[in-house]
Amino acid sequence: GNFTNSSGNLNFDRNFTISGGTFTNTSKKIIFDGAEAADDSQITCSSIGGTLEITMSGTANTTLGINSGCSVSLGASPTITLASNASSLINISGTVTIDSGTSTVNNATANGNTGNINVLSGGTLTHSGNGWDMNDVGLVINSGGTTTYSGTNITIDRDFTQSGTFNLSGITVTFDGNDGSDDSTISCSGSLGGTAVISKTGTAGSAVTIGSGCTVALGASPTTRLGRNTAADLTVNGTLTISTGTWAVVNDTADQIANPDIIVSSGGTITHSGTGWNFDDVGLINNSGGTITYSGTSITIDRSFSQDGTLTATGLTVTLDGGDNNDDANVSCSGN
């Protein structure tokens, strides 16, 4: 049959299927706005026409799937809202496009449980805009999934998994967030690509973990900001690289008693090819089996330094400084 929407937008909580006939929805929106666990939606089509709007609410595990062979447009500068639930997902098996502008992806509850955008095998996400901001939400590019982005900056509060095709060359991915729920695990196979910026703020334990087998580049003369909490650590299970210059590692709030650490785990590697390394109200722990290679000759640390792994540097001087009564420094070692 034929259907022509000549009035206004169409709102759906559940499934939407176009399997034949003619569906005309020019310049109109199709809005998916479920709030319950039963409001899972599967979109099956070749093309829906118009634009798709995704506005979930509540805390239920509401999911939306764009099925294989279905192409949908989110239009220009879309705002997408996922429910505040770790099982609230947008699963892309078909094709999703963002025409232009900034795509903003929000959690229905600020600092709520993490939902994810999942680009599944065979799925494609094409973002032709110049901004991408993911608030209390994660991004997963699965093996066989493809993502392209014409902008140069992405900000993510939560996890980022890159196992598919996503050329991040020339793109800066900033891991921000200021809440204890804003932990970020970066997972990839080989090089993530692009440049990562770690900029956690506030007093909550927003930890960052570089996954095993994943190489993350911080670029030249980076500043890494960690939250003011003993749980706000940067843990390196994979490889972290600094190309040149001075690496400044800072506590978001100066001169506080609570400090995070950079932790190199067994099998983890930091390769610092620059000439300066400064820790402000942050400690450094190189665990047994961890490896640090540094081309400079000086490190300054306000807080504790534990060296139980392999530290390769020539003519290195480690200065334990700090001008505050919270800058106690314990030095321990058993490695080389």
- Rg of Cα set: 23 Å
Percentage of residues in strands: over 45%
Sequence stretches where pLDDT stays below 50 over 5 or more residues: none
Class of secondary structure makeup = mainly beta
Biggest β-sheet description: 14 strands, parallel
* Rounded mean pLDDT score: 89
Helix content: under 10%
What's the N-to-C terminus distance? 76 Å
**DSSP helical segment count:** 0
Looking across the biggest beta sheet, what order are the strands in?
3-6-8-11-14-17-20-22-25-28-31-34-37-40
CA-based shape: elongated
Total strands: 40
What does this structure look like?
It is elongated and about 80 Å long. 0% of the residues lie in helices and 46% in strands. By secondary structure, the protein is mostly beta strands. The chain contains no helices and 40 strands.
